[in-house]
Amino acid sequence: MILSCYFQGILRSQQIRQVIKCSRMACSKESHAEEDKFIKDVFDLSMRQTVQKSRDICTPVLNFRTPQEIQGRIDLGLHPAGENNGELLKLCEKVFENSVNTGHPRFFNQLFAGLDSYGFAGSIMLDALNTQGHTYEISPALTVIELEVVKHMLKFVGYEGGEGTFNPGGSYSNMLAMNVARIRHFPDSKVTGVSGLPLLVNFCSEQSHYSAQKNSALLGFGEANCKPVKCDERGKMIPEELEKSILEAKEKGAAPFFVTATAGTTVLGAFDPFNEIADICERHNIWLHVDGAWGGSALLSEKHKHLCNGVERSDSFAWNPHKLMAAPVQTSVLLLKEKDLLRKSHSLNVPYLFQDDKPYDTSYDLGRSLVACGRKCDAFKLWVMWKSRGDSGFEKQIDKALDNAKYLTEAVKNHPHFRLVIPELEFTNVPFWYVPPSLRGETENEEFFTKLGKIVPIVKKRMQISGLVLVGYTSLPNIPTFFRMTIANEQVEKEDLDFLLAEIERNAADL
To answer: For the chain, does the N or the C end have fewer beta carbons within 10 angstroms?
Structure first.
């Protein structure tokens, strides 16, 4: 009797919970219907404004407006009461209208470009999952996917048996490499710091990425102790100058510990002579890091991987798939030849987060070996792309970019009104000047090229305002300002490159 009453009570409470649950679900469905519609509307808007427009060369790259004009067109203020979904959707549309379409085949402004549909799909899934990559417990599938992608990328660099991690950008990857190198050389400094160490100096080419100097400052070594090494006329580090700088530092009592070589410099696309630099680093027991953020993707091409000959002798390698591989920004990885260095450099006992009595192998808690705790699982976007394309798909993409660069180089070389900055192509970077009508026939001396440099920003400004094409510019020591053309988007065709040259001519016709 008692048991019967007990079970009847349980049954009644279950029935009551079921009624409450069904009532709650009905209310939930009604309250979430508008939110679901808003998500779908934003997705449709994103498809129209980015994915589809990136395939249409008839649409502009951007509708240029000043900051003040954008502030006047979009209600940027945050108010006590929220907007309704209809008004919010209109605001989202205005954001698209006042943004740059970096997926457009005539966007050449940066070292990233293009919009990969599969990478975009991966990004949507990542945002939907809204998790972090510090423990297997909260990101099980994404953790094993990251390890698989890292393992695959290690093979291309020649680091079989090594390790790696995805990071928020190439500068961060370069910073981690520098810190790992310091602890590899001076293990106790992980605990005691750098104050008791000799003066630590590091080296990079004078055309390397600026993150080498910034990271030297950030990690406490100082900007002044990141020594720039002279480059040749093609932008490659001169090995003899590197060794000379190392010996000078040693004579002054400093301890050289780290060299940054570059696979694809940001301006000229130069690849440093890695084997010769590796010889020097081995002689002096110095960590060799290769910043392959831009040019590392050449490893995917049988035709062009020779550009990276010798990188397998380095100790670490930074690679940004969000550049030439067109993965969504940001997708960056640091690869290390020696396994377990990340753990030795960054591990810390954090009992509220990392416990050893879990129902799985806790070595899969990747955050144990990293600086960052909150970390997006960026490897997933690249994994979706790689599953879709395979190695061969990426190889075709890299080859096409180099073929397009060769085409543009020849077009500039053969055009009477254009001049190349360097005579031969290094990578997909094509630096050049335009000779306007007023300067034609002048002697091509230092003054002549200085004048050419002055018209570059004027032409760029006009093209930016027109919105039809976007290309960058820069200068180098002893080289006046020039157009810094880079090709990364696989949707770029030869007609887009012809269009660029024609637009420069049109916008400089009165100069």
So the answer is: N
Q: What confidence score (pLDDT) does residue 10 get?
A: 46
Distance from the Cα of residue 188 to its chain's centroid: 32
User: Which residue from 412, 484, 482 is spatially nearest to 109, judged by alpha carbons?
Assistant: 484
- Determine contact, residues 475/457, Cβ cutoff 8 Å: no
Can you give the three-state secondary structure of 418-477, one letter per residue?
A: EEECCCCCCCCEEEEEECCHHHCCCCCCHHHHHHHHHHHHHHHHHHHHHCCCEEEEEEEC
pLDDT digits (tens, 9 = 90+) for 448-505: 999 999 999 999 999 999 999 999 999 999 999 999 999 999 999 999 999 999 999 9
Q: Count Cα neighbours of 471 within 13 Å in the Cβ-side half-sphere.
A: 30
**Separation between Cα atoms, residue 351 and residue 211, nearest integer Å:** 34
Q: What Å distances lie between residue 228 and 35, 234, 242, 269, CA to CA?
A: 54, 16, 9, 18
Distance CA 343, CA 324 (A): 30
Q: Of 201, 256, 195, give the one whose Cα is nearest residue 223.
A: 201
Q: What is the DSSP letter of 345?
A: H
256 bridge partner residues: 201
Q: What is the DSSP letter of 114?
A: -
pLDDT digits (tens, 9 = 90+) for 157-209: 999 999 999 999 999 999 999 999 999 999 999 999 998 899 999 999 999 99
395 Cβ contact list (under 8 Å, min separation 6): 300, 301, 302
Cα dihedral 182, 184, 188, 192, rounded to 10, equals 20
Q: What single letter denotes the amino acid at residue 30?
A: E
Type and span of the H or E element at 137: none
* Burial class for 306, CB neighbours closer than 10 Å (0-12, 13-18, 19+): exposed
Structure tokens at 179: 């810190």
**10 Å Cβ neighbour count for 233?**
11
The rounded distance, in Å, linking the Cα atoms of 33 and 35 is 5
What single-letter DSSP state applies at residue 205? Answer: E
The residues near 120 (Cβ < 8 Å, ≥ 6 apart) are 51, 328
